[in-house]
């Protein structure tokens, strides 16, 4: 059963052209203070925070306890839920969370539900011991990744549906910058918190436990934001479109509509391969960056101080630089810029491996990596968002794309530890540059086929 005129409303909401003149500098800056952009900013922080807790921060915890590099590299596989989240994304698009959906709405109800489960999963991980019970650590880390990826499904859909055209560019920069800040807080911030607990006299296992408890509490920032936000208008229209359909029918329509519509596009498989490979250079090096710094002789406090200081500044600058590039240049040109600079930044770590323990060299390498990675991420998010066009299955389609993007981080990079052991650190980061070549070849091919021109303006 379909509400009258719901389909036409959805089409108009998704396809309405932008006829406004280019904003002035003052208008461009003021848009960052719009309530919807601020909501996206805080939700971006909540999305970025959990990733490192089952990734690089966990790896440092394990390395401090003497766990083998190869085993640490294999722990990248706990990110499997990020690559499979498209399987349950139709549930997010189609089903209601008892009580929460009725009280808060279709997207906000799922947001609150996912964040509460995520807090519980992080607390469970806090209670594990990487040295004595690696299986329990892996299980808890998988649960964190599963709840985090579910939160990502909802946040991505909420973001795509809630921002009007005039706030898209600001929302893109704010979301990615906040996401990266969340990652920095759960890496550098977590290390500072753990070190502070150790300094106060707590033993190392207890310090790590309480460090993760603090990280779990920070997820409440996203929960408070979800409670304060308003349900996106496009989500309400999509809810009316689904009408009184049964739960099973809703799920089937969400899943089938998302996959059939996307796979029916020209060069769909090549576009999906490009999605998998574009951030692979970042993922391959990022898997081993924290163990590399510790192995080089830096303390976790040194690493945390630099990542939190110059790393944070570089992330913010890179996020806004990426927003400028995405707005100033065509989508294909922007992807070329982002793809090349994020690959070449790996050479700064090769240089650091030769220089050795030097605070300035570490600061430069971390800054280069954070700045270029943020540029690439903003542009990549713009591309993914341009591929999602229908609010009936925004969550499912975006989850499919971001799940494929996580393949590089989870599976293709799982052997990075063994490569680093076999080659040594300087050559390893040169290899990280070379693994970007397949994505650039695909980028050139898709550009020749007119793939990017056919997408129209990128929406985030």
Automatic annotation (TrEMBL):
Keywords: Membrane, Transmembrane, Transmembrane helix, Transport. Residues 1-21 are annotated as: Disordered. Residues 11-21 have a biased composition (Low complexity). Residues 36-450 form the Major facilitator superfamily (MFS) profile domain. The chain crosses the membrane at residues 37-61, 67-88, 109-127, 133-155, 176-197, 209-229, 269-294, 306-326, 333-354, 360-386, 398-419, 425-446. The keyword Iron does not apply. It comes from the Bacteria. It is found in: Membrane. Its main location: membrane. Belongs to the major facilitator superfamily. This is MFS transporter. It comes from Bradyrhizobium denitrificans. The lineage of its organism: Bacteria, Pseudomonadati, Pseudomonadota, Alphaproteobacteria, Hyphomicrobiales.
């Amino acid at each position: 059963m379909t509400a009258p005129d719901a389909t036409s409303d959805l089409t108009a909401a998704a396809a309405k052209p932008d006829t406004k003149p280019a904003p002035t500098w003052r208008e461009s800056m003021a848009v960052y203070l719009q309530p919807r952009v601020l909501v996206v900013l805080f939700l971006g922080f909540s999305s970025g925070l959990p990733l490192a807790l089952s990734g690089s921060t966990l790896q440092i915890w394990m390395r401090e306890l003497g766990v083998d590099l190869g085993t640490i590299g294999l722990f990248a596989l706990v990110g499997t839920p990020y690559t499979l989240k498209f399987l349950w994304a139709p549930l997010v698009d189609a089903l209601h969370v008892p009580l929460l959906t009725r009280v808060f709405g279709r997207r906000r109800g799922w947001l609150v539900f996912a964040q509460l489960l995520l807090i519980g999963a992080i607390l469970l991980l806090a209670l594990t011991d990487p040295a004595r019970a690696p299986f329990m650590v892996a299980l808890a880390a998988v649960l964190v990744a599963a709840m985090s990826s579910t939160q990502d499904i909802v946040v991505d859909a909420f973001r795509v549906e809630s921002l009007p055209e005039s706030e898209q560019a600001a929302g893109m920069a704010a979301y990615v910058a906040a996401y990266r800040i969340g990652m920095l807080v759960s890496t550098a911030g977590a290390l500072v918190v753990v070190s502070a607990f150790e300094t106060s006299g707590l033993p190392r296992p207890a310090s790590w436990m309480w460090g993760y408890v603090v990280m779990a509490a920070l997820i409440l920032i996203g929960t408070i934001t979800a409670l304060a936000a308003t349900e996106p208008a496009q989500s309400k229209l999509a809810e009316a479109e689904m009408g009184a359909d049964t739960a099973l029918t809703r799920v089937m329509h969400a899943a089938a509509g998302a996959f059939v519509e996307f796979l029916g596009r020209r060069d769909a498989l090549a576009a999906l391969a490009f999605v998998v490979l574009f951030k692979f250079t970042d993922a391959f090096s990022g898997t081993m960056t924290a163990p590399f710094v510790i192995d080089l002789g830096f303390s976790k406090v040194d690493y945390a101080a630099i990542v939190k200081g110059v790393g944070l500044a570089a992330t913010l600058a890179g996020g806004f630089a990426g927003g400028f590039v995405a707005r100033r240049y065509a989508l294909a040109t922007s992807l070329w810029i982002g793809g090349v600079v994020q690959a070449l930044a790996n050479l700064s770590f090769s240089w650091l491996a030769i220089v050795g323990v030097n605070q300035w060299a570490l600061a430069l390498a971390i800054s280069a990596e954070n700045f270029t990675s943020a540029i690439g991420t903003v542009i990549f998010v713009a591309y993914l968002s341009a591929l999602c066009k229908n609010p009936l299955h925004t969550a499912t389609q975006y989850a499919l794309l971001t799940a494929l993007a996580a393949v590089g981080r989870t599976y293709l990079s799982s052997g990075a530890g063994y490569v680093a052991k076999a080659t040594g650190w300087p050559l390893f980061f040169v290899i990280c540059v070379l693994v970007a070549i397949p994505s650039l070849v695909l980028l050139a091919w898709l550009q020749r086929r007119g793939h990017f021109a056919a997408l129209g303006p990128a929406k985030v």
